[in-house]
Amino acid sequence: MKKQDLLKEFDDELLEKLFGFCYARTKDSYEAEELCSDIVFALLKAANTEGEIESIYPFIWRVARNVYADFSDHRKKRSETVYDGDSEELFLKIADEDNSENTMEELSFMYRRIAFLTKAYREVMILFYLDGLSTAEIAKKQGTSEGAVRQRLFSARKKIKSEVEEMTDTYHKPVALDKINYVFWGTGKPSWGDPSKVCSRMFSHHVLWLCHKKPRTASEIAEELNVPTVYVEEELEILRKGENGEYGLLRRLENGKYGINFVLFDKEVFEKASALYTERLPKICDIILRYIEEHKEDYLAFPYLNKKVDMNLILWQQITKISSAFSENVKSILKEKHFADATELDRPYSIFGFEDHGKYYGGGMDGTYAENICGYSKVSINNIYISRIQAHFRYGHNISRDPQLQLAIRAIEGLDINSLTEQEKEHAAKSIECGYLYRDGDMLYTKILVTNISDIDRVFDISRGLRNGYFEEEAEFVAGKLAKLINSSIPEYLHNEWTFANVLANAPVLDAVVECLIEKGILVPPEDGIGAEGCWMSVEK
Q: Are the folds of 87-172 and 182-262 the same?
């Protein structure tokens, strides 16, 4: 028969017999599967050649025995060259055979030292000593000159030789991975790529911390943390590329070192920056309280679409703008007098942060948007989250999958309870509980604030008025001090991100203003942190 006809003989019965042949000759099922695969592969190669087979089964078993012989030979050679046991036992064995007390220790140091070489040198060492390539072959593989390869080999040998003498101290040095955590804030569209998501391990935190202090090479970080350079290099690239490959927590500088790529305050700098604001909080709060009282009727006169509104909901909607009025004054002065030459950022999403020192500073604002839903062509919904308020939803929330929000949209002009299905009534109850709706007789109405989309640009106009002439003298002082702190604590290449430094300095102000207004009876927080407070929407028919 022809060799091509071998394929017709492959069935479950033959494969079982081949596996049984292999299992009887190997130490476990994994090795048996490996040998069986080799035999099948050899038979498939034979089936793709020309020629005749006198007898099919003798041929199959002859191939099987030949493959097994090769397999046994490779296994024997491997056992002679590869040690699967404890490495320290191996070093001791070598030391005993060499009759040298220092051999084991020197070998141990040598192997560890190779791991600390930077990638370019380590790769050359591996290709030359382990893969057996010539310097010419390595040069071709790396796309460089043979002279460069020889130089790297020489430098690598020299580095190991000179540092072996110092390895006793390094070997006993503990890995310095004490707990370091960060608080990351962001602005823009995180779906574009949030680089903080790749910084989830303590090792990442330490690499970031060292590069934040000053730009470092992989070797410098490896020495500092007592971690092999190969791991550091990989981590540096992960942190450099970030989530989307375009925006990372680190940047590679022209000198080959890695530096911080976003505004990051350590505890000391954060405390200095925030103190510039917190020391002026009494005056800030007094001005805010007077402003709210003076403009109460203006706030209530805004054309909300709700059946009824109250001042409490309006102020919760406005609170982030109210509390940031002072920092906006500072920002204007910083831009005009201290960072006028800094280029403006053009990035879909940016992050900034500080060393976590156990204090929480609320929060943020997230929004979502939908079209052609619940009788409206456009719907935009926002909510804030701070220490007193939990978020109803986060950025990009899908309104079409949220029946409670849909009921809030449908109830803007009123919704008859009797028109609802039993399932919708269940959702309505939950919507009332979380603050989206309230009941008036047999009707449901939207409790969260609603405006026309055409009015969305002027929703915060009244609160923005606080920026005009209310804090000028104090803002000048803070701006001057903060500019000096930014220049001394942030790399020059990040000075165009000075606005984020100002946001961080202002971090304690929002919660402080909220607590002041609650204490004065101006604000009433939602029970358990969830309600209509801090949530609003804009719609278009």
A: yes
> Thinking of the domain 87-172, which architecture would CATH place it in?
Orthogonal Bundle (1.10)
Residue 28 one-letter amino acid = D
How far does Cα 517 stand from its chain's mean position? Answer: 36
Q: What is the domain class of 182-262 according to CATH?
A: mainly alpha
Q: Which pLDDT does position 109 carry in this prediction?
A: 52
Residue 205 CA: distances (Å) to CA of 183, 196, 244, 419 = 11, 10, 19, 55
Nearest Cα neighbor of 246 from 176, 194, 188 is 194
- pLDDT for the residue numbered 511: 93
Tokens 């989206």 found at: 436
Write down the residue that tokens 């969305």 correspond to. Answer: 456
How far apart, in whole angstroms, are the C-alpha atoms of residue 376 and residue 71? 72
| C-alpha span between 539 and 225 (Å, rounded) | 55
More confident of the two residues 291 and 344: 291
Task: Give CA–CA dist 348/345, Å, rounded.
Answer: 9
Counting every residue written for the chain, the total comes to 541
Written in H, E and C, the secondary structure of 59-105 is HHHHHHHHHHHHHHHHHHHHHHHCCCCCHHHHHHHHHHHHCCCCHHH
Cβ atoms of 445 and 307 closer than 8 Å: yes
**Residue 207: per-residue pLDDT:** 93
Beta bridge partners of 260: 250
Tell me the domain boundaries of the chain.
3-81, 87-172, 182-262, 269-343+365-387+400-540
pLDDT of residue 3: 75
Q: Which residues contact 60 (CB under 8 A, 6 or more apart)?
A: 6, 9, 14, 43
Q: Averaged over 246-268, what is the pLDDT?
A: 95
On whether the CB atoms of residues 404 and 397 are closer than 8 A, the answer is no
Beta strands in 458-534 (DSSP E): none
Tokens of 165: 């003498």
